[in-house]
């Protein structure tokens, strides 16, 4: 099982040093969250909390994940990065393709593109994109981005996007993996049909087991079981070496964690405490040898 550190809601002046430390102690990846802006009035429930309220406020720090991946990539050599997940629906696919291709090239193919639709009407409408039919539009966006990133002169004539022959150079020298987020049936079908992996929000072990089983069934329906596929998980009820072993047994391939939160420190903890938590986590799980037993 791989290990990924999420830097969600962390102070911007700590992020580069955290990437260096994560690589030094043996983490595989950094998960890069996405938020475009904070809107004061919330018109629909936030889908990932029981009460529908957001876990952050107007002062919570965020940075564009693609810019951050480039910055972190410049100070590391092995660490991978993936968006977790980018809210694709309110963006333009050609502009995103240019950014993703740039990050992939600048990091020497150490970037994975985690994508979601986005949940808030405000983000869509204030970015000039309709909220309606967002799922169908994101499906077409993914098709466009993959087409452009594959390289060469391409054209596209779809329902939502239409362009004649164009080329973005250089194309990444390896395919950029796409990880699809979301818990709905539609999202799981999207992941099984076109994704190189699926990424969860906060879920229990039982929920993860059920979802992974369903995804494998869907992948069989799409004749994709012979292709590599990542199951990136945030689990809220299995801890310790035994808990990690149980997650590996149900098929989790990538464990996403915020080590300093588990050590009782907040998102705004000093850098040194976060670095100590990264080292402690790595000693306990990454270097303990439990996967060899």
TrEMBL record:
UniProt keyword terms in alphabetical order: Flavoprotein, FMN, Monooxygenase, Oxidoreductase
Domain (Luciferase-like) ranges: 11-231
Pfam families, A to Z: Bac_luciferase
Domain of life (superkingdom): Bacteria
Enzyme Commission numbers on file: 1.-.-.-
One GO MF term: alkanesulfonate monooxygenase activity
Keyword DNA repair: no
Regions annotated as coiled coil: none
UniProt key word Oxidoreductase: yes
GO biological process: alkanesulfonate catabolic process
Stored PANTHER family: ALKANESULFONATE MONOOXYGENASE, ALKANESULFONATE MONOOXYGENASE-RELATED
Name of protein: TIGR03619 family F420-dependent LLM class oxidoreductase
Source organism per UniProt: Mycobacterium vicinigordonae
């Amino acid at each position: 099982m791989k290990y990924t550190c999420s830097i969600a809601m962390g102070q911007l002046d700590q992020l580069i040093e955290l990437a260096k430390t994560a690589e030094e102690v043996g983490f595989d990846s950094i998960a890069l969250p996405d938020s475009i802006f904070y809107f004061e009035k919330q018109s629909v429930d936030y889908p990932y909390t029981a009460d529908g309220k957001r876990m952050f406020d107007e002062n919570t720090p965020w940075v564009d994940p693609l810019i951050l991946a480039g910055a972190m990539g410049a100070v590391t050599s092995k660490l991978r990065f993936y968006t977790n997940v980018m809210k694709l629906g309110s963006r333009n696919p050609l502009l995103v393709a240019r950014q993703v291709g740039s990050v992939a090239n600048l990091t020497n193919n150490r970037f994975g593109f985690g994508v979601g639709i986005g949940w808030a009407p405000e983000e869509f409408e204030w970015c000039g994109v309709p909220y309606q039919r967002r799922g169908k539009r994101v499906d077409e966006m993914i098709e466009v981005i993959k087409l452009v990133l594959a390289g060469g002169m391409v054209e596209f004539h779809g329902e939502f996007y239409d362009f004649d022959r164009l080329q973005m150079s250089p194309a990444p020298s390896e395919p950029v993996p796409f990880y699809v987020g979301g818990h709905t049936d539609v999202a799981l079908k999207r992941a099984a049909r076109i994704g190189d992996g699926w990424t969860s929000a906060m879920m229990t072990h039982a929920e993860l087991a059920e979802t992974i089983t369903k995804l494998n069934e869907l992948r069989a329906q799409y004749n994709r079981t012979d292709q590599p596929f990542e199951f990136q998980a945030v689990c809220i009820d299995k801890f310790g070496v035994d808990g990690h072993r149980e997650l590996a047994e149900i098929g989790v391939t990538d464990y996403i964690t915020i080590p300093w939160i588990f050590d009782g420190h907040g998102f705004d903890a000093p850098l040194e405490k976060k670095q100590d938590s990264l080292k402690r986590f790595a000693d306990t799980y990454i270097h303990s040898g439990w996967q060899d037993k």
